[in-house]
Amino acid sequence: MADDSNAPDAATDADAETLVRRVRDGDLRIHELEAHADADTAATARRRLVEAESGVDLDAVGSYGFPADRADANVENMIGAARIPMGVAGPVTVDGGATEGERYLPMATTEGALIASVNRGCSVLDAAGGATARVTKSGMTRAPVFRVADVAEAQALVTWVRDNENRLREAAEATTNHGELQDVTPYVVGDSVFLRFRYDTKDAMGMNMATIATRAAADVVEDETTASLVALSGNLCADKKPAAINAVEGRGRSVTADVVIPRDVVEERLHTTPAAVAEVNTRKNLVGSAKAGGLGFNAHVANVVAAVFLATGQDAAQVVEGANAITTAEVRGDDLYVSVSLASLEVGTVGGGTALPTQGEALELLGVAGGGDPAGSNADALAESIAVGALAGELSLIAALGSRHLSSAHESLGR
To answer: Does the keyword Oxidoreductase apply (predicted)?
Structure first.
């Protein structure tokens, strides 16, 4: 692993200056440097160019603790790395379909008090015997949009797709060794026909896999019907945008975590009552979210999803879908039942940012690095762990509101 300071040696320094001169002379463009030097030298040269032109010192950005070529698949025009503090919540006991036992939850965040709050929730979950979690549905989607002449042609295309799903499956699956096409659902809007392809992508988050596979299937549609492909993504997927279809149909992993907490634990650990927690959840998360027209009926699931995504190398923009969650709370006898259901949690343990050094270590901490046995089990386990973390975060925040301790918690932590 590279030295943490990432200081260039004399040869690297000279090579970087040569690249800087060539860019200034117009011989090279800034995105071409890796073709003429190793990745660290290219990053150093690019950083110096930016420093000189902007007048900004980027020493901290240039201090990164891994070889730059480890990020070749993750970033273009690299100048360094952004460091985000990482902490852990837990341990918390998870009773999942794919993971079981005590888990520390790695979280990368700049929001003070967040991990402390989730950690408090984890301790309450453990005092109740741990939380249960299950992935209830899985499938990554891509939905191309086709143009047809009229509604009659639209109906003909829908019929053809339903009759030829096996042909589409064969074309799609020929592009991948791992992905499996689960189904194709047509949607008609005038002379536009959207085909929502759903794939089992195993332990990969699978967006690129789904895109490539769908391109092959779309070629078959164009060859065999009168439809013309307009866009490989027609926004009915829906990727990185708030969408009701993901809340209803799911995307990635649909996962739920729940727990029953004895009344005495609620009173002693959370300084409130089951009834107060249930009322806050109903009036805030359910009624308040409905009045606001929200798609997510929860307190702050996005906080946990974002922090774990950053720590484990997930696609950070997919927090948009990951926060599409519903939290429920009710009194059961003397006790408190709480659940959180994340409809569209898009996660993977192979590919993308999971190969970066710190992100790989965070996945190892959760026991889910790399491909699972059976395939898909590691991504399921990651989803279950995130759901339990979200449950802990929801419980802690709702209880803080119920006991009117939210502002005092931030004050005591000085943030």
So the answer is: yes
